[in-house]
Amino acid sequence: MTFIHSFQSEWLKTRRSLAAWLVIIGSFFIPAIMFAVRLVYHEKLEGDSIAPAFWETLFGNCWQPMAVLLLPMGVILSTSLIAQLEYRNNTWKQLHTTPQYFSIIFLAKFAVILTMMLQFLVLFFIGILLSGFVPHLLFGVALPQESIPWGYFMKQNAYFFIDCLPIIALQYLISLQFKNFLVPLGVGLGIMLASLISLEWKYCYWMPYTHCSLNFYAIKHIKGAIDPSVNYHAWALGYFVLFMVISFILYITQKQKG
Fold first, then answer.
1. DSSP state letter for 51
2. 249: burial class by Cβ within 10 Å (0-12, 13-18, 19+)?
3. Rg of the Cα trace of the chain?
4. What is the rounded distance in angstroms from the CA atom of residue 127 to the CA atom of residue 119?
């Protein structure tokens, strides 16, 4: 059984699951709020049309609650749900009797989580664009004159994806080791809370769940305690590799899988 077939099988398991709905609803939640706000205060639309940095401002406003709180929380919940599908359905034994390597199973499940993360970022970006354009069309106001900074958006979305990798990897590691769903959820929320508290600490980038918040700080030019010369994206990638290696070793060497 190839990786592609295994990925397709794992992807089918997520259809109509809570994790899938979290991706869809979560990606449009903040843009929907911004859309409603811009409808209520529609008298400001003309000023937005000539604002020199309209799209960057809208992008930052949408990412503020998402990067600091909602995205880490959503990643924790979604990753734990997907990784524990077999525990909840009591199907680990059936899965391990299929003609595929354990490494394929491990990587296919993780690839599904990464794909859903990419799906979230795409839908969230579409939501931002809709919240920027549609109110102008509804009220017959000129569209924003500033051209969409595609390069800036792609770069920042890529950074947010990288900064989420440590959260995904660590939640995946914990979820595969414990049958009780509350364990990875509780550990993840605990680390997230500790990370939020540590944001004013000089070495807050040591905490693996802080990097999304730090990237938002960089977007909004918020001066914090962190040294601006620190490459926290590299720290995120480092934590990701570390957690994935540990997770893979524990899964492969586990005597009783599931």
1. -
2. exposed
3. 20
4. 12
Helices (H), the chain: 3-13, 18-40, 45-50, 54-65, 71-83, 85-89, 92-96, 102-138, 150-177, 182-197, 211-219, 232-253
**Residue 148 domain-assigned?**
yes
Distance (Å, whole) CA 36 – CA 51: 20
Q: What is the pLDDT of residues 136-145, one digit of tens each?
A: 999 999 999 9
Inter-axis angle of helices 54-65 and 211-219, nearest 10: 150
- Has residue 27 been placed in a domain? yes
Q: What is d(CA 77, CA 189) in angstroms, rounded to the nearest whole number?
A: 9
Q: Number of folded domains in the chain?
A: 1
End-to-end alpha-carbon separation of the chain, Å?
A: 20
The two three-digit tokens of residue 71, written as one number:
């995205």
Neighbours of 3 (CB within 10 A): 15
Rounded-to-integer distance, Cα 115 and Cα 11, Å: 9
Angle at 53 between CA 49 and CA 59, to 5 degrees: 100
Please state the pTM of the whole predicted model. Answer: 0.92
* Within-domain flag for 168: yes
pLDDT tens, position by position, 148-187: 999 999 999 999 999 999 999 999 999 988 888 889 999 9
* Position 117 in a domain: yes
Angle at 191 between CA 243 and CA 159, to 5 degrees: 60
> What's the domain range around 198?
3-253
Q: Are 50 and 22 in contact (CB under 8 A)?
A: no
Q: What is the dihedral of CA 87, 91, 94, 97, to 10 degrees?
A: -20
